[in-house]
């Protein structure tokens, strides 16, 4: 039996967040407007939604890690609004999953994009990361 059979194209996840002062552009160094939702925070919510979609379905010892992301944040959202992020698995190949992502506030679509995540064995991945750090320190 395939340990990853419960991960499939078309899977979806929705995440919602009421925008607080901590989510604004001024707090992310992405602008000087203190009452607008920050693009880096939108990206983080999108990534979080993708990870929440697949990570709980992975076998013990496995996690997903981000590889690439492309996001277009084309409408402003004010402090106090609620942002809804919807993600869907759009494809997979050799342990790499791709996602289509969309974000909305109460007035309509505010952004969209794509993201890819690879499935890795956590211990193996951390051993490689630690070896890399060791190589850099020498």
UniProtKB/TrEMBL annotation:
Residues 20-121 form the Fluoroacetyl-CoA-specific thioesterase-like domain. PANTHER family: BLR0278 PROTEIN, THIOESTERASE DOMAIN-CONTAINING PROTEIN. This is Thioesterase family protein. InterPro entries: FlK (IPR025540), FlK-like_dom (IPR054485), HotDog_dom_sf (IPR029069). Pfam families: FlK (PF22636).
């Amino acid at each position: 039996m395939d340990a990853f059979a419960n991960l499939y194209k078309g899977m979806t996840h929705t995440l919602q967040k009421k925008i607080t002062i901590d989510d604004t552009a001024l707090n992310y160094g992405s602008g000087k407007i203190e009452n607008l939702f920050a693009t880096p925070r939108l990206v983080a919510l999108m990534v979080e939604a993708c990870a929440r979609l697949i990570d709980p379905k992975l076998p013990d010892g496995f996690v997903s890690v981000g590889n690439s992301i492309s996001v277009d944040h084309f409408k402003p959202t004010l402090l106090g609004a609620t942002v809804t992020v919807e993600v869907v698995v759009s494809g997979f190949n050799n342990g790499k999953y791709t996602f289509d992502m969309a974000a909305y506030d109460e007035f309509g679509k505010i952004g969209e994009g794509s993201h890819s995540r690879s499935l890795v064995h956590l211990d193996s991945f951390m051993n490689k990361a630690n070896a890399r750090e060791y190589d850099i320190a020498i």
